[in-house]
């Protein structure tokens, strides 16, 4: 039986430890194509380069591992991989392992989730993995057995069309278990700080912000799971339609 073909990307760049931990975990069991940004792209979400050129350079070609670095966004990496670089449609798209949490509303900003949302839009089973530590030398050892188990399960069972999985790991040596969750409600506040340039004249703004959990006691959410030592798996979908709101608008009159 042939090995599955997996496309991997991230938003921390092709040199990030989390990416290379993922490569080592899968090299023995899959044919890997890695197309990753040439530097950090955190917060890139599903952005694409429409008005500038994108470079993509081969940096590694070995048995079961082909690796490129790309000047574009994480989503650009997936598009280029699928349309230009891979020998066939991959069996799976993986984003990560991200250095930092991607739970709750962070999913909308995450370049890691931009990777897997693009995979889902191509109807390819896709998983984003994130560790709740932004340290460059974070310890991924507790994560890897779960990454392999979750990935193998998805390869066996598949995912519904236009869906993907957002998987987050607490920064702990041992986990209490795994919970399939919904996305928690959380917001950023106090997001910008005005500062003065060292020249004493020019003003500029620096993004800071406080992340506020709006439902900390809701036990069915990803944030509750992570706070209580569980791995969170949040099924996520491309379709952002607010169906309940759509129903309430059924008798609204927008005619002119």
Protein described:
This protein has 256 residues and is α/β, with parallel strands linked by helices. The chain has a single domain, classed as Stationary-phase Survival Protein Sure Homolog, Chain: A (3-Layer(aba) Sandwich). The protein contains six helices and 13 strands. The protein has helices spanning 17-26, 74-85, 111-121, 144-157, 222-227, 243-248, and strands spanning 5-9, 31-37, 56-62, 65-70, 92-99, 126-131, 163-169, 177-180, 186-189, 192-196, 203-207, 210-213, 230-237. Helix 3 links the parallel strand 5 (92-99) and strand 6. Helix 2 packs parallel to helix 3 (111-121). The radius of gyration is 19 Å and the shape is globular. It starts with a strand and ends in an 8-residue tail after the last helix.
CATH topology: Stationary-phase Survival Protein Sure Homolog, Chain: A
* SS-based class: alpha/beta
Uncertain segments are: none
**CATH architectural name:** 3-Layer(aba) Sandwich
CATH homologous superfamily grouping: Survival protein SurE-like phosphatase/nucleotidase
The end-to-end span amounts to 62 Å
How many alpha or pi helices? 6
Shape: globular
Order of helices and strands: EHEEEHEHEHEEEEEEHEH
Please tell me the total number of domains: 1
Radius of gyration, in angstroms, nearest whole number: 19 Å
Largest sheet strand order? 3-4-2-1-5-6-7-13-8
User: For the report, how would you describe the main beta sheet?
Assistant: 9 strands, mixed
How many β-strands, per DSSP? 13
Mean pLDDT: 93
Instruction: Estimate what percentage of residues fall within beta strands.
Output: 25-35%
Question: According to CATH, what is the class?
Answer: Alpha Beta
